[in-house]
């Protein structure tokens, strides 16, 4: 994983922002000034993505875009490979498109104003570069994390009915950062969009409801939509992608009417975490953890707590690291 993520304007090399992993303090630009000069040289000779080891024995991965240069910086300690770092930068760029829009991102007229406005992406960007602290695997698999529950078909019926009332084909239920039900159109989104939308929900502070403008990086990078979310239970979010209507207030009034009868079902489904699949499914006791990826549907199922062990987070983190 990168120690730092740096964003510069293309050509001029003006700093836009720096984000860091964990407890590492953001580095001043002059500390890595010589490294940045190398990257700005690469801007002239490399088409898009490049990896280079600079004299400070630091690995730089750079994603060169029409208006911006994204740089991942890390020591040569083997903590991440080129593919992982390249995917990280792609995800960061698409996260910026998701919340800021492609037009404004590729046509920066006022750098100082852009530096202030792009801060709205920081929560999602931080989630991406620090995702090793989460229990999900989407940063590695490029597939959205799911949870398999015995209540899935019942919840699917509730969800389909609600999104129809919301006049939207896009809806999903997310519990503990994992999708437990989604509409057909939601599953038709590209893998990057599925992953980023789920991580965006995880990055939000707890809130009963919200209305967030979003752009779909592949489906609609220049035309905004609205992501409406409603907290049905603790760690259980209902998400709908809408156009200009209905308003958040209008749809919020409908939530109790459609979902009150599903509260017990939602609670039961939520309790599938952290095992993430039903206890009725037997697994060999020698299996401590697994990661299952469906590359066609862009979904992944994982568990490092098959026996529902409690109060052993260090053990679970170690298993996740091994996977």
UniProtKB/TrEMBL annotation:
Pfam families from the UniProt entry: Fuz_longin_1, Fuz_longin_2
Residue intervals of the FUZ/MON1/HPS1 second Longin domain: 167-260
FUZ/MON1/HPS1 first Longin domain location: 4-128
GO BP annotations listed: non-motile cilium assembly; vesicle-mediated transport
Protein name: Uncharacterized protein
